[in-house]
Amino acid sequence: ELVALAAVLAGTPFPVTLVAQGPAATLHIERAAFIGVLRRHPEAAIGIATLLSHRLNELFHYLEHATGGSTLPERVQHALQRMRSRR
User: Fold this and answer.
1) Closest Cα to residue 14, out of 3, 26, 27?
2) Are 3 and 24 in contact (CB under 8 A)?
3) Please, which residues have CB within 8 angstroms of residue 30's CB and are 6 or more apart in sequence?
4) Contact of 73 with 81, CB cutoff 8 Å
5) How far apart are CA 15 and CA 5, in angstroms?
6) Which residue in 4, 50, 79, 85 has a CA-CA distance of 20 to 30 Å to 24?
7) What's the whole-model pTM score?
């Protein structure tokens, strides 16, 4: 599983903590090395973009169900409030 992929690409902190339920192995790849691979292998970059697009769609579907199918004006208002709170 690729963890923190969006955060690595954006150069931002990963916003959650992961805890393994049993023995686990990890592989840390430095951001600069990862970006270098994507630059040298455009097909890999497209694969990563596709993976992130699927995850984003899943998130949108989850949010739609979690908010009880709010109306468009309610969702826009919520998004504007979220953006205002980030300032």
Assistant:
1) 3
2) no
3) none
4) no
5) 12
6) 50
7) 0.64
